[in-house]
Design a protein that fits this description.
The complex is a heterodimer of chains A (98) and B (191). With 98 residues, chain A is of the alpha+beta class. Chain A has helices at 6-9, 11-22, 31-38, 42-54, 77-93, and strands spanning 4-5, 29-30, 58-65, 68-75. Chain A is built from five helices and four strands, in the order βααβααββα. Chain B is mainly alpha-helical and 191 residues long. In chain B, helix 1 packs antiparallel against helix 6 (169-189) and helix 2 (64-87) packs antiparallel against helix 3 (94-116). Classes of the chains: A alpha+beta (98), B mainly alpha (191). Chain A binds chain B through residues 1-9, 11, 14-15, 18-24, 26-27, 33, 36-38, 55-57, 82, 85, 87, 89-94, 97-98, and chain B through 1-6, 9-13, 16-17, 19-20, 22-23, 26-31, 33-34, 89-90, 191.
Chain lengths: 98, 191
């Protein structure tokens, strides 16, 4: 049975990773857009992104557009694999029902 | 790195089911928003084409033919360029597909006008946006509700203008039709 991933399984982080996983590989999403999609506060999202980045599941890129700071997030290959393994684990629990 | 435990899961089947449903919903929502955002630039291109084309048809009716030929060619070329830039990573043939779609649509319109000839200039002006409206609505059945809403609204606005604003139909389509496409493009970019 594939393993349970306690970093990914937290509800907001699960939503973040599921959202990022739906984008094509290598696609970056802006922080403000991701915040609106997962419906989290700025601080809350920032904290969860920090946890996922520390685990190596996302990459965070910061730059400027003109004078405006911009933060973009993408799922890493490790993050993609970890998410897929966690989903497989959830499906294993249901024994093929899903 | 997250803990992966190959022994008993801490989750019950109900919790696993709820998590998977949440993942499905998040993925579906994310995919729709991604498709909407990718489609948005095309709406801006064709909003500009309609604004200029219908506007010129109203102001310079004798020049409508050459103006529309030029603007449609520019619209298709820009759409191909946008497709190549946006989809190159996931679909190398995106530009060709857009060009092919444009060819198919224009081919259909030409054939339909031959079958229904003779047709008036106003009928041609109304028929083309109705074809676009049907295309958006049909695409929306797979790509998402916002396309269905946009297509339906476009069709309704075209028919209203055709039936009730006959004398200034081209101006109606320039302002109202062009604005509808522009607003659709903005809407598609939003979460």
């Amino acid at each position: 049975m594939a393993g349970f991933n306690d970093v990914i399984h937290q509800p907001i982080r699960l939503k973040i990773v599921a959202t990022l996983h739906a984008f094509p590989s290598g696609e970056q999403v802006e922080f403000v857009r991701l915040r609106a999609i997962v419906n989290a506060t700025e601080g809350n999202l920032g904290a969860h992104l920090g946890t996922l980045e520390k685990a190596g599941y996302i990459a965070v890129a910061k730059d400027f557009v003109g004078k405006k700071p911009r933060t973009r997030v993408q799922l890493t290959a490790a993050g993609r694999r970890a998410f897929q393994q966690h989903v497989a684990h959830l499906k294993d629990i249901l024994g093929g029902e899903f | 790195m997250g803990t992966t435990d190959n022994t008993a899961s801490p989750l019950t089947p109900e919790q696993a089911r709820a998590a998977l449903q949440g993942i499905e919903q998040a993925a579906a929502h994310s995919t729709s928003l991604y498709r909407y955002r990718q489609a948005s630039p095309f709406f801006f291109v064709w909003a500009a084409v309609w604004l200029l084309g219908y506007g010129a048809s109203d102001l310079l009716p004798a020049w409508r033919g050459p103006v529309w030929l030029l603007l449609d060619a520019a619209g298709v070329a820009l759409s191909v360029a946008v497709a190549r830039r946006q989809f190159l990573r996931v679909d190398r043939r995106a530009g060709w597909r857009i060009a092919g779609l444009a060819g198919a649509l224009f081919g259909f319109i030409f054939c339909a006008l031959v079958v229904f000839a003779p047709v008036s200039g106003r009928q041609v002006s109304a028929f083309i946006p109705l074809v676009a409206a049907v295309a958006y609505t049909a695409a929306g059945l797979w790509l998402g509700l916002r396309f269905v809403v946009t297509g339906t609204l476009l069709a309704a606005l075209t028919l209203v203008g055709y039936l009730y604003v006959a004398q200034h139909f081209d101006l109606w389509m320039a302002v109202v039709g062009g604005s509808a496409l522009l607003l659709a493009g903005v809407w598609l970019r939003r979460v």
